[in-house]
Amino acid sequence: MDKPSKMCVLRLTTLSGMVIFRQRLTLNPMANQIITVSGLSNQEFLEQHAQPGRVGLCGGSTKVDLAIRRAQRHLHAEQRWSDWSHAFLFEGRRLDGQHWVLESDLQILRKNIQLGAQENRAEKYFDEQMFPTLAVLDFGLTGAQTTALLRGGLELVARHERYSLRELIGTLVALRRPELRARENLLARERSVYCSALVKRLFLGLGLDLVPGVVDKNTTPEDLAASPLPHVKYLLLREFPRAKISVLGRKLKASVRARLEKIRRPAG
Questions:
Q1: Neighbours of 135 (CB within 10 A)
Q2: In Å, how far are 73, 147, 262 from 85, measured between CA atoms?
Q3: DSSP of 75-134, one letter per residue?
Q4: CA 22, CA 11: separation in Å to the nearest integer?
Q5: Are 67 and 39 in contact (CB under 8 A)?
Q6: Which among 140, 119, 112 has a CA at the least distance from the CA of 203?
Q7: 197 close to 219: Cβ distance less than 8 angstroms
Q8: pTM of the prediction?
Q9: Is the Cβ–Cβ distance between 211 and 219 less than 8 Å?
Q10: What is the 8-class DSSP label of residue 161?
């Protein structure tokens, strides 16, 4: 397990809600643990906790990220927004000395557009304004499991699995109708996968179900964050101003209403 850094404060939260502050932590590998980290930049956090086979989560601040975070409010009785909008897998350091990630994403860089399974440097998540919240989930995979997991991910990249906005919409429908979450995505397509669905599918290939009762193409980043499978969660959480969330929430609602009215309006 990673050693605590002197640069940060570590807070261990047990499932019973007890909060313990320690400099050295002895964790029970069979119980879910949350280690909350503060005082680190995104880069320092990832340099310390990114390891091959671990799952990464981020909560973005763009309109698309906020819409995904808001949509997952249906997973909570109190209707609170999720902290998470994207999920990915850490591959480890490459010959360039950089940490790399496997993910399915929508990425537009100047004239280059990447849609679907891809590899990227983890440095894309160093921007603290763009990604104010990060988490790393360690499910304690063996070396052989990690190799198999990443091999499966590279196969998806080689096959050019697409990022499916269509399936994402199907997942959002299932969030409003929980009885659909265990069934095949209503808008499923072949050779398509979005971020958290990719993570769940690859773990299923190891015989590990991160989110029992939910099919891979209905799996959300919030589902992964709440996985009952024993793991350690390293959490770097910065509060997003509530006032800003409220304003953005109203803007999103207004935008959705406007689009629905445009669709329903008869052609003149």
A1: 26
A2: 12, 26, 27
A3: GSTT-PPPS-SEEEEEEEE-TTS-EEEEEEEEEEETTEEEEEEEEEEGGGG--TTT--EE
A4: 7
A5: no
A6: 140
A7: yes
A8: 0.78
A9: yes
A10: P
What angle separates helix 195-204 from helix 143-158, to the nearest 10 degrees?
Answer: 130
Instruction: At 27, list the tokens.
Output: 């964790």
- pLDDT per 10-residue tile (average), the chain, 268 residues: 44 40 40 91 97 97 92 92 96 97 81 80 96 97 98 95 87 92 92 93 97 96 97 89 50 53 54
* Longest CA–CA separation in the chain, Å: 70
> Tokens representing 52?
């091959």
Query: Per DSSP, which regions of the chain are E strands?
Result: 9-13, 19-21, 33-38, 55-59, 86-93, 99-109, 112-121, 133-138, 232-237
**HSE value, Cβ hemisphere, 13 Å, CA-based, for 61:** 16
Asked whether 51 and 138 are in contact (CB, 8 A), the reply is: yes
- CA dist., res. 41 & res. 125, Å (int): 11
Do 222 and 68 form a contact (C-beta atoms < 8 A)? no
Long-range contacts of 199-208, Cβ-Cβ distance < 8 Å, separation of 24 or more: 199/55, 199/87, 199/88, 199/89, 199/224, 200/224, 202/89, 202/149, 202/152, 202/153, 202/156, 203/139, 203/149, 205/148, 205/149, 205/152, 206/141, 206/145, 206/148, 206/149, 208/139
For tokens 């909350």, name the residue. 36
Place of tokens 């932590």: 25
